[in-house]
Amino acid sequence: MSFGEDTWEMCLFNVKDGFLEGVVRGYKQGLLTTADYNNLCQCETLEDIKLYLTGTDYGPFLANEPSPMHTTSLVDACTRKLVADWRYLRENAGEPLGRFLDYCTYGHMIDNVVLIVTGTLHERDVQELLEKCNPLGMFDAIASLAVAQNMRDLYRLVLVDTPLAPYFSDNLTSEDLDEMNIEVMRNTLYKVMRNTLYKAYLDDFATFVHRVGGTTGEVMGELLSFEADRRALNITLNSIGTELTRDDRRKLYANFGLLYPHGQAELAVAEDFDQIRAAMEKCPPYQTIFSRLGLGETQMLDKILYEEEVRQLINTYEQQFHYGVFYAYMRLREQEIRNIMWIAECVAQDQKSRVQDGIVFTF
Amino acid sequence: MKLLVLGTAAMLGLPSLLLLLYLLNVDLHYLFFLVRNISPYFWSALGISLCVGLSIIGAAWGIFITGASLVGAAIREPRITSKNLISIIFCEAVAIYGVIVAIILQTKVEAVKPNADGSYGLAAANAGYAILGAGSVTGWANLACGLSVGIVGSSAALSDAANSTLFVKILVVEIFASALGLFGVIIGIIMAGNANFTAQG
């Protein structure tokens, strides 16, 4: 069966998406290499960093930045590059690639909604919050999120028009909406809300890529499984010692991934890091990850997981005729921006000895 | 996908249906009568049109697959355009094979008088089927060849854009893909070699 599918995929993929695949592979060529990072690490000031980045794909976006540079303006300029690329892809995409690209940004949309809602609760200026939002996850009515007084308003006035609406309506019942006064969210509950939404989003995204099928389904299935498992791990790590019950925890795990369902069941009852580790190590791919982690080095876990993700993302470029390359480009560029931010922060705060620790090398 | 299933079902289904009818003693003679009485000129025309038509579909499809990737990849690396035109030329060659074989086949077609009952002689029937066979062999071989060259050409464009040392290596693969169409051409020409409408007998 897969013979016929793959043949048709090779013959028909380029009809709609061949051009953009070529474009996005071109963008990927512009990502910084290890040599670039080594040069960046030698920089003494933010101006040096800016000067070096002007010679890369970021050039046109940094050219008009006024001196003196700040870390935030540097990162903003780099983000503008990603956003410009992404807009170009989105505007030229046919279906179902267009929907796929939209799906990639729903995660940012959820982050933005949570950021605005929690920010308003802490009585922060809306304009200031909007500037902090990720531009990839912007939607028209986002500013009016701030005026909503309770969850029901929030849903009816704003979110119902966004693609996030089903994630709200399916997971938060009408009683939830009534009861979940926005004041309640002041506690850690908003994290639960964020994770509930993210779980619904991941499940939905996984269903979508499965429906697209073929190589896209295969490649994206792997990437999303890793994402789901990483979230499950992080949720478990962060919920140790909180009042989140096992059932609540279980509800926040996505319904797929390598850990689904037995690994998740073990994670749900895990009480400390060693139990989490035992649960994860039953899954061979994670065993190798955890074996790189010495005993008691929980801080290193994030970086190791980022490195593993980057490795998987680069692997997507080994295959042709699938959508995974678009997702991978976005994630790799975001990782690169995180790296630049780390380098810039280290330089700005005179912590150059630590600069190598935070970089996740891509190539 | 559905097409593939339907095609397989039809290919397996038709012979078994005929066998069933034969076993049930249904008179199938009229079927052979029908096939025998189709003019050899129809078969030769069908062969020639399949030859040129399928070859050109293969070439066009291949050029399209390569072209889409080539244009996309050339945005960042304009240097690849002239080099990768060779992939387009390989696809185009497939169409030329089809046209050449079609011209050769076409020269075989000559007018002969039918018998008194409207049927044609052995030589004419032989020539008609030979041209049909030669045309289909060339056509289908070139369709597969065009798709193959197109897909490899698309990868060639993308990999050349990523790393220019890969171009020559992937070009070798592409040349082998391009040779597939020639097999069809050779067999087609050999098959048509015997075709002679005006032969005695």
UniProtKB/TrEMBL annotation, chain A:
<dbReference type="InterPro" id="IPR044911">
    <property type="entry name" value="V-type_ATPase_csu/dsu_dom_3"/>
</dbReference>
<dbReference type="Pfam" id="PF01992">
    <property type="entry name" value="vATP-synt_AC39"/>
</dbReference>
<dbReference type="GO" id="GO:0046961">
    <property type="term" value="F:proton-transporting ATPase activity, rotational mechanism"/>
</dbReference>
<keyword id="KW-0406">Ion transport</keyword>
<dbReference type="InterPro" id="IPR002843">
    <property type="entry name" value="ATPase_V0-cplx_csu/dsu"/>
</dbReference>
<keyword id="KW-0813">Transport</keyword>
<dbReference type="InterPro" id="IPR036079">
    <property type="entry name" value="ATPase_csu/dsu_sf"/>
</dbReference>
<dbReference type="GO" id="GO:0033179">
    <property type="term" value="C:proton-transporting V-type ATPase, V0 domain"/>
</dbReference>
<comment type="similarity">
    <text>Belongs to the V-ATPase V0D/AC39 subunit family.</text>
</comment>
<protein>
    <recommendedName>
        <fullName>V-type proton ATPase subunit</fullName>
    </recommendedName>
</protein>
<keyword id="KW-0375">Hydrogen ion transport</keyword>
<dbReference type="InterPro" id="IPR016727">
    <property type="entry name" value="ATPase_V0-cplx_dsu"/>
</dbReference>
<comment type="subunit">
    <text>V-ATPase is a heteromultimeric enzyme made up of two complexes: the ATP-hydrolytic V1 complex and the proton translocation V0 complex.</text>
</comment>
<comment type="function">
    <text>Subunit of the V0 complex of vacuolar(H+)-ATPase (V-ATPase), a multisubunit enzyme composed of a peripheral complex (V1) that hydrolyzes ATP and a membrane integral complex (V0) that translocates protons. V-ATPase is responsible for acidifying and maintaining the pH of intracellular compartments and in some cell types, is targeted to the plasma membrane, where it is responsible for acidifying the extracellular environment.</text>
</comment>
UniProtKB/TrEMBL annotation, chain B:
<keyword id="KW-1133">Transmembrane helix</keyword>
<dbReference type="InterPro" id="IPR035921">
    <property type="entry name" value="F/V-ATP_Csub_sf"/>
</dbReference>
<dbReference type="GO" id="GO:0046961">
    <property type="term" value="F:proton-transporting ATPase activity, rotational mechanism"/>
</dbReference>
<comment type="subunit">
    <text>V-ATPase is a heteromultimeric enzyme composed of a peripheral catalytic V1 complex attached to an integral membrane V0 proton pore complex.</text>
</comment>
<dbReference type="Pfam" id="PF00137">
    <property type="entry name" value="ATP-synt_C"/>
</dbReference>
<comment type="function">
    <text>Proton-conducting pore forming subunit of the membrane integral V0 complex of vacuolar ATPase. V-ATPase is responsible for acidifying a variety of intracellular compartments in eukaryotic cells.</text>
</comment>
<comment type="similarity">
    <text>Belongs to the V-ATPase proteolipid subunit family.</text>
</comment>
<feature type="transmembrane region" description="Helical">
    <location>
        <begin position="166"/>
        <end position="192"/>
    </location>
</feature>
<feature type="domain" description="V-ATPase proteolipid subunit C-like">
    <location>
        <begin position="132"/>
        <end position="191"/>
    </location>
</feature>
<feature type="domain" description="V-ATPase proteolipid subunit C-like">
    <location>
        <begin position="46"/>
        <end position="105"/>
    </location>
</feature>
<protein>
    <submittedName>
        <fullName>V-type proton ATPase subunit c 1</fullName>
    </submittedName>
</protein>
<dbReference type="InterPro" id="IPR002379">
    <property type="entry name" value="ATPase_proteolipid_c-like_dom"/>
</dbReference>
<keyword id="KW-0813">Transport</keyword>
<dbReference type="InterPro" id="IPR000245">
    <property type="entry name" value="ATPase_proteolipid_csu"/>
</dbReference>
<keyword id="KW-0406">Ion transport</keyword>
<keyword id="KW-0472">Membrane</keyword>
<keyword id="KW-0375">Hydrogen ion transport</keyword>
<feature type="transmembrane region" description="Helical">
    <location>
        <begin position="127"/>
        <end position="154"/>
    </location>
</feature>
<keyword id="KW-0812">Transmembrane</keyword>
<feature type="transmembrane region" description="Helical">
    <location>
        <begin position="85"/>
        <end position="107"/>
    </location>
</feature>
<feature type="transmembrane region" description="Helical">
    <location>
        <begin position="41"/>
        <end position="73"/>
    </location>
</feature>
<dbReference type="GO" id="GO:0033179">
    <property type="term" value="C:proton-transporting V-type ATPase, V0 domain"/>
</dbReference>
